[in-house]
Amino acid sequence: MGAGTDGLDERDTAVLELEGRQWRTAGAKERAIREELGLSSTRYYQLLNALLDRPEALAHAPVLVNRLRRVREARRAAR
Description:
Elements: H1 10-19, H2 28-37, H3 41-51, H4 55-60, H5 62-78
């Protein structure tokens, strides 16, 4: 997969787009992760977490990335 003009490859962009969707039923997101990306849920969340630290991801989806960073920091602080 090649890098796009924003420095993210197709998989990175697909992960961000999938994470930004609304999910109506339990399990729908995990099913989409497997079917659309061909990833396990564990690998998906590893990739997503790494993306949150990349400036390219912030430039691509600033609202989503900032929201997810706040959630991640709140969870870390709660530990």
